[in-house]
Amino acid sequence: MFQAVALSGSRGERLLFSNVSVTVKPGTLLAVVGENGSGKTSFLRVLCGLLSPDCGAILWQGKDIRQLKELYCAQLTYVGHLNGIKDDLTPVENLKVSASLAGDESSGAIVQKALEAVGLGRSVHRLPTRVLSQGQKRRVALARLWLSTRPLWLLDEPFASLDAAATSYLTQRLQSHLSNGGMVVVATHQEIAIPTDSVQHLRLTR
Description:
Blueprint: E1 2-11, E2 14-24, E3 29-33, H1 40-47, E4 55-60, E5 63-64, H2 65-68, H3 70-73, E6 76-79, H4 91-102, H5 108-117, H6 134-142, E7 152-156, H7 164-179, E8 183-187, E9 199-203
Parallel strand pairs: 3-8, 3-9, 6-7, 7-8
Antiparallel strand pairs: 1-2, 1-4, 4-5
C-alpha cells in the first residue's frame, strides 16, 4: 500500500499543493488531474523522492520513504513527462540500458518484444532514436513498462504524443499491471479507459 499524508509542495515562492492525503491500494490507479501549472509534475516528483515536500510524508507499506531510501526506489518505475532517452542510442540500446539499471530483464529478445508491444516495428529498432517521431520516442520510453516487474508505477502524462493505437496498447498494459496487484499513479489530462472500480481521482487546483 502507498500513501501520501498531508503533503504540501511549492516551487520557489508559489505554493503548488497543500495538505494532500491519498491512499493507493494494490490493483488501483490514481489519476492526478488539474490545469497546467497546478503542480501535477511536482507532485509526482515528490512521490518518487526526486523532490522533498514542504511538509507531510510518503509511506510505502506503512513506512516513511525517507527511512527506506533505496529500498523504496527499488519498488517503483518512474516515467516522466520528458522521455529520458538518449538520441544517439537505438530504441533497443535505450531499453537495454534502462532495464539493466533497474535490474529488470534486458535480453535482446525481451527488449524486442517490449518494443513490438508498443507498436514499434523492427524496422526502427536499430535506428538512432533522434530520427524517430515524437510519438515513436514516447513509445520507446513507455516500453520500459513492458519490462518492469516493480509494483508501483509513477507516470507523468504517459499518453502525450500517442496515437489511438498506442493509447490502446498502454491502457491494456496498465490494466494488466493492476490485475496483477500493481499500483499506478498517473498525472493526466484525459480519461483512462479502465473500469471505474479500479480508478480513483485526485484533483490539484492552483
